[in-house]
Specification:
6-stranded mixed β-sheet; alpha/beta; 6 strands; globular; Rossmann fold
Length: about 160
């Protein structure tokens, strides 16, 4: 059994109209939500074997908050450029190439691709993955390469504005 957590980056700043989308940092709410959600996840006693993140600043910064909470070194976050502007096929490709020794992985990425991907996985559908939302599934497989064809069960969904 494998476990996958899909996490949208926390709220980002739109303060600079000239800044490249890739370089946008987290805004103040994002800087509060990311550690809050990392703590909520940690409270579930879930072990994370790896963090895979888009290389965009807002996604990587979100992943760093989770790394800190879970005692993972920031340098050990696996940075994957394909997770920036990823479509569902990109997500499948990244996940299917994960090391089989990793049983619980968290993937940090962006909308609209993360919502589209989530809606392909289980009967649980989302209109829009909220910033810093966590969508978790369990995969009936011992290998990531079988991810696409494996049975997947909805596990949980949480986000900053949900009831604590």
């Amino acid at each position: 059994m494998k476990q996958l957590l899909l996490i949208r980056h926390a709220k980002s700043s739109w303060d600079s109209a000239t800044m490249k989308d890739f370089d946008r940092p987290l805004n103040e709410r994002g800087k509060k939500d990311a550690p809050k959600m990392a703590k909520k996840l940690s409270a579930k006693k879930i072990k994370l074997d790896a963090l895979l993140s888009s290389t965009a600043k807002r996604a990587l910064t979100t992943a760093q908050y989770f790394a800190e909470e879970f005692g993972i070194k920031k340098k050990d976050i696996i940075q994957i450029p394909e997770l920036y502007h990823a479509n569902p096929n990109d997500f499948y490709e990244v996940i299917e190439h994960a090391d089989d020794e990793l049983n619980n992985i968290a993937v940090f990425s962006h909308n609209p691709g993360i919502t589209e991907f989530i809606n392909e996985l289980t009967d649980k559908k989302l209109m829009n993955m909220p910033t810093c939302g966590i969508f978790a599934i369990k995969i009936h497989s011992n290998t990531w390469k079988d991810f696409a064809s494996a049975t997947k069960d909805f596990w949980f969904f949480d986000y900053p504005k949900s009831e604590d």
